[in-house]
Each structure stands twice: as structure tokens, then as C-alpha cells.
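**Paired protein data**
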Amino acid sequence: MGGAALLLAATDALPLRAMQWLKVDGGPDAMVAAVNYDPGVCLAANASQNALTGEILFRTPSLLGGQAAKAGLSCASCHVNGGDNPNFHFPNASGAPGTADVSNSFFSATGGNGTFDPVSIPNLAEPGKVSRADPGELEAFLKTLIVVEFAGEEPHPAALSALADYIRALRSCEVQGESGRSLAGDLALVERAALMAERRMAERDEDMARLLVAGARDTLGRIYERFAGDDLRKERNSIEHSSITLHAASRETGSSNRIASFAVWRETFHGLRQILQRREDESLYNVQRLRERLE
């Protein structure tokens, strides 16, 4: 699929990659409810553009780096929409469902403490052990978490700022029920990430731009796995082409070439949106089809 950002690990038994890290009691209905879990968390109405950038990074595995990124885990894997995840269960890093041991040596050979001590995954919309108000304290905590506990590369200061602002903007809100992911929501995330990446490139912030492109491509990968089956092969090919085109645009040298390449990508992406929306009901975004696939 044109790069690690689109490498999917779904299987015939578990068609969605995220299902590998969920443990439920029950059959297909329980798994569908788990993958569509709504923690009742949303962004503040006045969330800044920096917080919206942080939302993209929060869902991007390459931000964490190390073994977590290779497995396709992002911050959002444990914290759905910034909340908790009572069904999360990662081999050798979780005890009961909804717990994780982030000091496990699987994630970091140097950051592992040699003790299996999983704790409940917190809801980030609620007050935590790290102050949200003190300038720089949350950023410092996030840096340590990524570099030490997940063995990732030291994040760009702008990435830490965006991630911290996203967490500060999280609020508790009414649970919508079995909402889960939507095609419209995922396409909007891709488009927003690509637009933000293009702006960062114009500002010569290449590191942040490529991280945002990685986030866009990872979301395209999640859309790809929802369009499963031989009947949707054409749609999957179009998703793959969109990812490759976006990656190529982000690697262009020279302002005029880059602007032209992103313009081409946007035009083809709008076409992709229409193609996918026409077949959405036949995809695994359709909850009933997802249940049937698990039976």
C-alpha cells in the first residue's frame, strides 16, 4: 500500500486491525460494540487549530515510534476519542481488559521496569496526575512517555504543543451510543491532516508536515480495511492510489512542484470521496455487514 502507514494487520477472523487489541465476552455483537465504543468525550467548542492538529497526531502510530508504531498502536488505541477503552487488551501488556503496562519492556528495552504492573487506562477528559494548567508540565510528561516508555524519537516541539493542547481541549459529553467510526468522519480527518501538512510545508516545517501526512495515510489505511471483499476491489485500489499520491506530494522539492502535486491530490481525493460514499453501505462501515463478517 505504498509505505508502512498503510500496512494493515487485519485477518479473515478479525477484519479490522483494532479488533486485535480488544477482548470481549460474547460473540459478534460484543465485538462490534467494542470497536464502536463511545467514551463520551469530545473537543471543546472553542478548540484551537493547534488542538485540532494534536487530534491528528493522537491517532498517528508513528508519533509513538518503536514497537508500538510497528504494531499500529497510537495514543487513540488506548484512549478512544481521548477517553478510555475498557476493552483494550494487548498481549503481555494488559492484565484485565481496559488496562495497560506502558513500562513493559516490549515497548522499550530501556524504559521497561521489569515488573508487570498494568493499570486502568484513564479517561483523558478527566483530571489526571499531571497538571493541565501548569505551562510545560503536560508537554514534558508526553515527551517522557514517548521517548522513554515507547522508545520513540524525541518529538518535534510543535508536535508536543499540539498534542498537549488537544488533551487540554478534551471535555466530557453525552454518550451517543454505538456511533463508532464513520466514513465521513475518517475522510474529514484525512482531508484536514493533508491541508495542515501542506501549510506546514509552506512554513518549511518538514518534520511536522510528514508526521501529519503519516496520520492521513494511516487513516486511509483504516478506510481501506473497511472496504473489504472482491466487490470493492476497485474502491480499495482508489484508496491506495490516493495514499501513494499524497506521499509523493509530501516528498516534492520546490514550492511550485509541491503546490501542484497537492492540488492534484485534492482533486483526486474529492473524486475518491464520491466513489466511497456511493458504496459505503456495502462496506464494513455498515454495522450489520461488520456483524455478518464476524459470524
